[in-house]
Amino acid sequence: MDSPTSHDVAKQAGVSVATVSRVLNDAPHVSPAVRRQVLRAIRKLNYQPNRTAQRLRAKQSKVLGLIISDIQNPFFTAVVRGIEDVAHQAGYSLVLCNSDEDPDKEKLYINVMRAEAVAGVILASASEAKPHASDLLAQNIPVVAIDRQIKSRRIDSVLAANEQGACDAVTHLINLGHTCIGYVGLPLTRTPGIERLKGYERALREHKLPVVRARIRIANAKQLGGHDSALDLLVQQPCITALFVANNLMTLGALNAIRERGLEIPRDISVVGFDDVPWATLLQPPLTTIAQPTYELGQKAAARLLERLKNPEQPVVHTHLGTTLIVRGSTSAPRGKENSA
Amino acid sequence: MDSPTSHDVAKQAGVSVATVSRVLNDAPHVSPAVRRQVLRAIRKLNYQPNRTAQRLRAKQSKVLGLIISDIQNPFFTAVVRGIEDVAHQAGYSLVLCNSDEDPDKEKLYINVMRAEAVAGVILASASEAKPHASDLLAQNIPVVAIDRQIKSRRIDSVLAANEQGACDAVTHLINLGHTCIGYVGLPLTRTPGIERLKGYERALREHKLPVVRARIRIANAKQLGGHDSALDLLVQQPCITALFVANNLMTLGALNAIRERGLEIPRDISVVGFDDVPWATLLQPPLTTIAQPTYELGQKAAARLLERLKNPEQPVVHTHLGTTLIVRGSTSAPRGKENSA
DNA sequence: AGCGCGATTGTAAACGATTTCAAACCCCTT
DNA sequence: AAGGGGTTTGAAATCGTTTACAATCGCGCT
């Protein structure tokens, strides 16, 4: 039992397919009587226009592509939800891909987008440097970068204020009296890694504290990377009284590492994470973090893409959304300085 | 700059479009010389076959639809990842929709799937009762139910062993010596809600304990629902020494409620959750839960759908994946019975 | 040499919608 | 009554593939 086509509807209503199409698209020049007739036939057959055919003919689809690194990361989860809500509002569907930060996989998926002839793509690129995305631009498929910048003059972006957020986190620690602050960070191949490190360094410099390379660890953005880096820092740099961890999954690992070392938070060590999570309040002590407006990030990115689809020639827009320092229980003055803050 | 078409390739290679198509589809009867020629042209033009046209012609697409309630639920997050990995392995893309447990939204999205002419749909239905999914079956679009059964003789399903899991959880509590066990559960409109309650009741009956309706609360599957239900139970039913919470988000809320009441886990009250989460070990005490094989659930569902696409006539298959009781620190013998277990 | 038969290639018709163009029609004016 | 303007309708082309069918080619066999 195949789907009915516009021909079936036309036959049923005793008109031509052209008329059916006109009714469907609210085109003028259809008499009320015929319109009613056609609508009746549509309802009777439970007819749905075939989007594939529409797409082929119209050369534009109501589908957006979405390439992120991993849907299992709660950050992207919220972003995706924001995108989806805006997209569906506007009648667009979403094709989802996980690149796992692998540039080859990303390239593959970009080609999928091309083949699917999506209207536009929202991309959290695995790498700033190699913009496979330009393949898309070359076919007039607009791209919006999310979470990570892409080196291209023609790509809108929607990012969190990473540097400022990181700076806020570290400033908070400095204000509490910490002077030896460790940093567990992301690879420097993508915007968040680059800018959060900058923020860490800026906060130190603004308070005349030295930036000590040995107190900085870079690892992949997973729980294990956070764990190993934190453990290593705690062992190698015993002066450290506070830790800034640049990513939510890494924070999980870092907290485990701290527990393994038998240290107590915040008495022995203060911890600030980046990106809030629903369970931050359940930890003992609850976690101090820099919250990103994740859902809004997604909304804004989708809105930006839809804007650009409507008006392709407008100038490129870069949006930065502010972060919020949420002080909970995992930060306090370092031991012996309880009154200095 | 439009995408090159098979005509462009044909012209470039000095052959007909039919030959290009044959090369593309590894069809027989193409001389090696011509094949090389065509491949060269394809590479030169960076040609990608237009899937829209392929789809229209072939009347089958390499796209799967996925309708879940909410991607922000960590359970679905893992499920989606499992689906996506299997789907992309087989060359399929994924169209994602969030129904928010709203049957109307679900119906809308099912129509989107129909219009998109997806090859098949994986559906976590908002309701067992109203199978909008039959609209899809009527058009020969196969459906696989995930997490929740659908009342239809023709729909494969992939579910967790909800009843057994719940029974294991409650049995664990009973074995520790608890006799007054509260249940914070999901609505009875969907499989997990129905079966987990069954499991709770079965465990009690198997141990000759009464099933007391007043110790059971049903609420929506969000954090707030869990919080309010748990709080209510703690106040109304002071005999309760253990709580079984049927969903991960509700568990979050329940833990908060317990903290608000100033109770200590597990001394004053034991807690078992359903569905493991990465941060379960970070809680103080770490959370005892029933772990579902979420990622495998997704994998199996996708595999099932691909199987059915390959062979539409095979009999319907219902897959149940086992759960695992993970005992951590949030459960112990009730006060005053420390040695009875 | 002529015939026949694969193997190879091309031509043209689908797929289901939109859209251009022209035909048909209505009603009004002169 | 004929012509003209505007509205309504339909026929046919189009989008980029796949595929049934026809045409061509080359080669071996008699």
3D structure, described in words:
2 copies of one chain form a homodimer. The first copy, chain A, has about 350 residues and is an alpha/beta fold. Chain A has 3 domains: about 5-50, 434 Repressor (Amino-terminal Domain), CATH 1.10.260.40; about 55-160 and about 295-320, Rossmann fold; about 160-295, Rossmann fold, CATH 3.40.50.2300. Chain A is about 45% helix and about 15% strand. Chain A contains 12 helices and 12 strands. In chain A, the strands form 2 sheets. Chain A has a 6-stranded parallel beta sheet with strand order 2-1-3-4-5-11, with helices on both faces. The first copy, chain A, has a 6-stranded mixed beta sheet with strand order 7-6-8-9-10-12, with helices on both faces. In chain A, strand 6 (about 180-185), helix 9 (about 190-205) and strand 7 (about 215-220) form a beta-alpha-beta unit. The first copy, chain A, starts with 5 loop residues before the first helix and ends in a 15-residue tail after the last strand. The mean pLDDT of chain A is about 90. Chain B binds a DNA duplex (30 and 30 nucleotides) through helix 2 and helix 4.
